[in-house]
Design brief:
Elements lengths: L9 H7 L9 H10 L7 H5 L6 H9 L3 H9 L5 H7 L6 H4 L12 H14 L15 E5 L3 H12 L3 E6 L7 H4 L8 H13 L3 E4 L9 H7 L2 E4 L19 E3 H10 L10 E5 L3 H12 L4 E5 L11 H9 L3 E3 L2 E8 L3 E11 L10 E3 L5 E3 L3 E4 L7 H5 L26 E3 L2 H4 L4 H19 L8
Parallel strand pairs: 1-2, 1-4, 2-3, 4-14, 5-13, 6-7, 6-13, 7-8
Antiparallel strand pairs: 9-10, 10-11, 10-12
The protein binds flavin-adenine dinucleotide.
Length: about 450
């Protein structure tokens, strides 16, 4: 598809994609750290899926022990810069801060975490971690997203010889290729990749496991495998006109925004984004920030049922995104390229036994929204074809890998898994936790007597 917007000036792109949450100055960080009440029961720590000892790392910031603060954070999470910038803190740590109950602003935990980790990376990654001597076992990891990186870092420090196999040319998974640039730049993600490599983890890029090498090859080569392959593409809309030029999957579009020069990313003047999850909001706001004049989100249910976080919804409204609720696409209109999206108005039925209200179309309610680009953002398929080809793996009805919730071991004892491929798509912080826990599951499997759990 051609770029249909008049290119913006470089400084306009920079302004549009500027960080949503700029860094603290040292003085502001210490003032904010001193606001923390260091609660005896740390609700913030409980709300963090990786259970970072938040009050301790904040206390260390207040005493200017920034490397100590970074160390406390890394003890729980190997991708803490990404999490500091991209975690939905409003529903996790900051959402649990006791200041919310007092009607006051919660401690800005994400920005404080970023402050400590930015400082660490600015010190050329001083060695803070003890690495055990080699234990003679090797582990292969498939996928270099946060799950794979966290598993690799932890295993390497436990003395394993670790190789990550990554199909992409640049590692980091969605941290590198998916998260909106106004939250996280690619350089941030690559700093975390470098940290993991500094522990001795090897990353082989451009290796599509299942094609370039087989799972059998890797099972022969390694004592155990970890699957951190994430999810696949957006599913088809299955409407007429879907093949027209100008219809694109959300991930493909977002990947272009992360990897190409902004003035080269093809975007329409009037863009319809189908779906109302967090990825839809990202695609919509990114299209708007690239210069699209009108961006619409089309969703067949109402704002009550949409899965996007409230703060993401607010961001989209602030960016001027127009929401068409109770609206479903019927067909994409055009000759060889998109000229419009024909939609139907919907209504919601009474709640079913699960409390879900099924949307049904209103006959004769068709109308056309003139657009020249359609972005499909109705979720992501699992990599079920690849996963089904792996001997002994069991998938649930959604196509996610079933694992033991303690060890992260699959039904094939030599294969462990974590991240989006087991949970169907959560957050970076969940993938980071899974990867770390799975490393201990692998250690326990290969050295049953040794596991002093972390
Ligand atoms: C558009 C978008 C925006 C998001 N924004 C946020 C956000 O702001 N905050 C947040 O917390 N979460 C966000 N998420 C969710 C978050 O990115 C994921 O939960 C997280 O990245 C999952 O980590 P993972 O390691 O399981 O998988 P991924 O990050 O998807 O990494 C999987 C890796 O495996 C590789 N791979 C797959 N198959 C193979 C194979 N056969 N051989 C070799 N390599 C393979 C892939 O190339 C990829 O690098 C977002 C997700 C999307 C889609």
């Amino acid at each position: 598809m051609k770029n249909l917007v008049t290119g913006l000036r470089t400084e306009e792109y920079e302004k549009n994609f500027a960080e949503l949450h700029p860094p603290f100055t040292p003085g502001a960080a210490i003032t904010e750290a001193n606001r923390c009440l260091y609660c005896y029961d740390s609700p913030c720590m409980k709300a963090c899926p990786t259970h970072i000892d938040i009050s301790t790392f904040i206390k260390k910031i207040s005493t200017k022990n920034l490397l100590g603060s970074a160390r406390t954070i890394f003890e729980s999470n190997w991708v803490p810069l990404t999490c500091a910038k991209a975690c939905p803190v409003a529903v996790l740590c900051e959402g649990a801060c006791v200041f919310n109950d007092k009607g006051e602003k919660p401690i800005e935990i994400g920005r404080l975490q970023r402050f400590a980790i930015d400082n660490y990376f600015s010190q050329n990654m001083l060695p803070l971690f003890h690495k055990a001597s080699p234990n003679g076992k090797s582990v292969g990891i498939i996928g270099s997203g946060p799950a794979g990186l966290a598993c690799g870092a932890e295993l390497s420090l436990l003395g394993f010889d670790v190789t990550i196999y990554e199909s992409n040319k640049i590692p980091g998974g969605l941290n590198t290729w998916g998260i909106a640039p106004y939250k996280l730049r690619r350089e941030d993600s690559l700093k975390e990749v470098e940290l993991v490599k500094s522990f001795g983890v090897k990353i082989e890029t451009g290796v599509l496991v299942g094609t370039t090498v087989t799972i059998d090859d890797l099972l022969k080569k390694h004592s155990a495998l970890f699957l951190g392959v994430g999810l696949g593409e957006s599913p088809q809309l299955s409407v007429q006109g879907e093949e027209l030029e100008g219809v694109i999957g959300a991930l493909e579009f977002i990947e272009k925004v992360k990897s190409e020069k902004w003035h080269e990313v093809p975007v329409g003047k009037r863009v319809a984004v189908i779906g109302a999850g967090n990825t839809s909001i990202d695609a919509a706001t990114e299209a708007k920030r690239l210069g699209a004049e009108e961006v619409y989100i089309i969703y067949r249910r109402s704002d009550v049922e949409m899965s996007a976080y409230r703060f993401e919804y607010d961001l989209a409204k602030k960016d001027g995104i127009v929401f068409y609720f109770l609206t479903s696409p019927k067909q994409v209109v055009g000759n060889s390229f998109v000229e419009g999206l024909e939609c139907l108005k919907m209504k919601l039925e009474e709640p079913d036994s699960r409390g879900r209200r099924k949307p049904v179309s209103i006959p004769g309610s068709e109308f056309i929204i003139p657009v020249d680009m359609v972005i499909k953002a109705i979720g992501q398929d699992t990599k079920s074809a690849f996963l089904n080809s792996i001997p002994g793996l069991t998938l649930d009805n959604e196509g996610c890998v079933i694992v033991n919730t303690e060890s992260y071991q699959t039904n094939n004892p030599k294969i462990f898994a974590g991240g989006d491929c087991i949970n169907g798509g959560k957050e970076v912080v969940n993938a980071a936790y899974d990867g770390k826990r799975a490393a201990h599951g692998i250690n326990k499997f290969l050295f049953p007597m040794s596991e002093g759990e972390n």
